[in-house]
Write a structure and sequence with these properties.
This protein is α/β, with parallel strands linked by helices. Helix content is 54%, strand content 16%.
């Protein structure tokens, strides 16, 4: 059982290729529409925010906005929950960053020459060449800025990926065949230890999302990381009541499992 994340230049075929791989292997296919529906189920607010800011460069105000931070935390939790369930193709949204510690996750980037992407977008979106060129530049710049602002990464850096494939040189069918082979080989890396660690990552993300979306608690510095298998909740809080609420939410999400708190009161 393996996981595929696809980072893609706009017009390089990421969604089509991902859908074909998922269909071939019987994997779940998780793209923006799937995630939007999931966020809708969590409340109209979150689905609306997702449609407004999905993979776009956040403003300075948005980066510090409670609602935006809550959206990102929920998005991360959803992606990690899908990954923990195994056999899934995840399109974009920083999946390659969130799953960098997971050996059975195949992290792929799809690129293509501009001319190839222009032809694709002109036909698909019924645009002139000039309009298609502007759209490609806009979408790629927004995605790059989103990942830089959210995770501090350069999405063009090969070091973040297991494979970088050029769909201007390979047909979609060739890319699908290659990815299917790679995923089948990677299944051997889904050891009990690797799957347990991924489950822990998903649990930590759920805890962060629970705290980040509760309007009674405002912790701009909130982080939930793992030390071993123990979630560690850190951040600056304002009142003893906030600390009590955070501890209650932790029990709600993780039950009797140990959690360490590094909560500091603002002086």
């Amino acid at each position: 059982m393996a996981i595929l994340t696809i980072s893609r230049e706009y017009g390089s075929g990421g969604r089509d290729i991902g859908r074909r791989v998922a269909s071939r292997l019987g994997y779940e296919f998780v793209d923006k529409e799937r995630l939007f529906r999931d966020l809708d189920a969590k409340g109209a607010r979150w689905g609306r925010v997702a449609r407004e800011v999905d993979e776009v460069c956040p403003t300075l105000w948005e980066r510090h906005d409670w609602q935006y931070r809550g959206y990102v935390a929920q998005l991360e939790a959803l992606i990690l929950e899908y990954a923990a369930a195994d056999r899934v193709v995840i399109i974009g949204r920083g999946g390659f960053v969130l799953l960098k510690e997971v050996p059975h996750a195949l992290r792929v980037r799809l690129i293509a020459p501009l001319e190839v992407r222009l032809e694709t977008i002109m036909v698909r979106e019924s645009l002139s060449r000039e309009a298609a060129e502007r759209l490609i530049a806009q979408v790629d710049n927004e995605r790059a800025c989103y990942l830089k602002a959210t995770y501090g990464v350069d999405w063009t850096a090969d070091e973040h990926y297991d494979l970088v494939l050029n769909t201007g040189h390979l047909s979609y069918d060739e890319v699908v065949d290659l990815l299917v082979r790679e995923l089948e080989a990677r299944e051997a890396l889904a050891t009990p230890e690797a799957k347990a660690h991924l489950a822990d990552l998903a649990l930590a993300a759920r805890l962060k999302a629970r705290i980040a979306t509760d309007p009674r608690v405002l912790i701009p510095t909130l982080e939930v990381r793992l030390e071993g298998s123990t979630p560690v909740v850190s951040g600056i809080i304002h009142t003893p009541r906030e600390e009590q609420l955070v501890r209650e939410m932790a029990r709600e999400v993780v039950g009797a499992r140990p959690v360490r708190f590094e909560l500091h009161h603002r002086l």
